[in-house]
Amino acid sequence: MGSAASAAAPPPPPPVQPHGAAPPYGVGLAGILPPKPDGDEKKEEKVDYLNLPCPVAYEEIQREALMSLKPELFEGLRFDFTKMLSQKFALSHSVLMGSLEVPSQSADVIKVPTAQYEFGANFIDLPQLMLIGRLMTDGRLNARVKCDLTENLALKVNAQLTSEPHYSQGMFNFDYKGTDYRAQFQIGNNAFYGANYIQSVTPNLSMGTEIFWLGQQRKSGIGFNSRYNTDKMVGTLQVASTGIVALSYVQKVSEKVSLATDFMYNHMSRDVTSSVGYDYILRQCRLRGKIDSNGVVAAYLEERLNMGVNFLLSAEIDHAKKNYKFGFGMTVGE
Amino acid sequence: MASAAADAAQSSAASAARLAREWSTWAMKKSEKMVISFARIKPRKKKKKAKVVAHYGFIPLVVLVGMRSEPRPSLAQLLSPV
């Protein structure tokens, strides 16, 4: 004989009710069988705290805001040509003729006219391996490697190598992805060590923390960040012991339009910057514009002229510093 | 006669074993020397050599990996501008 506890017969299904119609029962039954509410399909889903989604990586919590508010503004002529040799392998040639800003101590803006050619090779075989290399005419190599060592552990290497001594930089990142958390350990040149951890707290909220140590300058720091996102909006907050507080908010107004704003406060230099921008993603073009609290207005347009041919226009106007940057360019290839 | 043949076989086997042992110890000594010489280089110079190797070798490595992946592109496709 089977045990009484197992395989109890399932309860009989509730009686089927005509949708919304008044029950044609007698008075006696109306009290016992109330009509089903009409049309309300949404139920309050109980949050399963043991089954939360995996959060966005720690360094990418602000990616929507960065994509909308910080396009790659340039000055001069830019031409990019990408040649796909196969699905995974591509070569790219990129020419930039214009002025590059040189950081200067004084308030003046110093621009140096330069012309550079950059050769790039990409091998992208997601999810196992990704190799991206860019080599410029002055000998600088920009290398990025992303490799999945196991299903949850990934290694990322990011390096800028130059011919001049002591100017090269490199960073090794080991990422571990758990069910609802991510952990990362970083090793960089000049004895830089960092670690960060981010955890999903609710289906919409994730919070994380990071700590780093700079060997050469004997400095260490700790930071916290959190990200709240729904289908329509993303809000992030970052606080670091280096004295930086950064907030950002992106609202997706419709399929084609998003508005973004960000705010940054630097306690050490008492510097506050805030910007508001928009991002229109239309069928043939993508237009991004923003205005800053420093009075800087910028816009960036990418227009699709043909299959694989994009036309770029970039503008940045800073009346206070008398810095006007206008650029145009073309991108050929996927 | 059988014992002589057996003796010959034994001696040849012994000599083969001896040769094998000599070669393997020679190979081990050589690789040990290489490892020790690399380890004996000062760490700064090692980092410099590694950096130079990475600087010159990364793009050729990416091109090599790309040319060997499926579907294999041809050399003409690599060098032509179209």
Walkthrough of the structure:
The complex is a heterodimer of chains A (334) and B (82). Chain A contains two helices and 19 strands. Chain A has helices spanning 27-30, 63-69, and strands at residues 76-84, 89-102, 110-125, 129-136, 141-148, 153-161, 169-177, 181-188, 192-200, 205-214, 219-229, 233-240, 244-252, 257-266, 271-281, 285-292, 296-306, 309-318, 323-332. Chain A has a 19-stranded mixed beta barrel. The radius of gyration of chain A is 27 Å and the shape is globular. Chain B is an all-alpha fold and 82 residues long. Chain B has helices at residues 2-40, 43-68, 75-79. The longest helix of chain B has 39 residues, at 2-40. The mean pLDDT of chain B is 79. The chains are: A mainly beta (334), B mainly alpha (82). At the A-B interface, strand 3 and strand 4 of A face helix 2 of B.
- Structural class of chain B, by secondary structure, is mainly alpha
- Please tell me the overall pLDDT of chain A: 86
Kindly report the oligomeric state of this protein.
heterodimer
How much is the radius of gyration of chain A in Å? Answer: 27 Å
Shape of chain B: elongated
Number of helices of chain B: 3
Q: Helical region count of chain A?
A: 2
How many angstroms does the end-to-end distance of chain A come to?
Answer: 69 Å
- The mean pLDDT of chain B is 79
Strand content of chain B: under 5%
Low-confidence stretches of chain A: 1-11, 13-23
Q: Based on helices, strands and strand pairing, what is the structural class of chain A?
A: mainly beta
Q: What's the number of extended β-strand segments of chain A?
A: 19
Which percent range describes the beta-strand content of chain A? over 45%
What's the Cα radius of gyration of chain B? 25 Å
Largest beta-sheet characterization of chain A: 19 strands, mixed, barrel
Gross morphology of chain A is globular
Which sequence of SSEs, written as H and E, runs from N to C of chain B?
A: HHH
Membrane topology (chain A): Multi-pass membrane protein
GO cellular component, one term (chain A): mitochondrial outer membrane
Family (chain A): Belongs to the Tom40 family.
InterPro entries (chain A): Porin_dom_sf, Porin_Euk/Tom40, Tom40
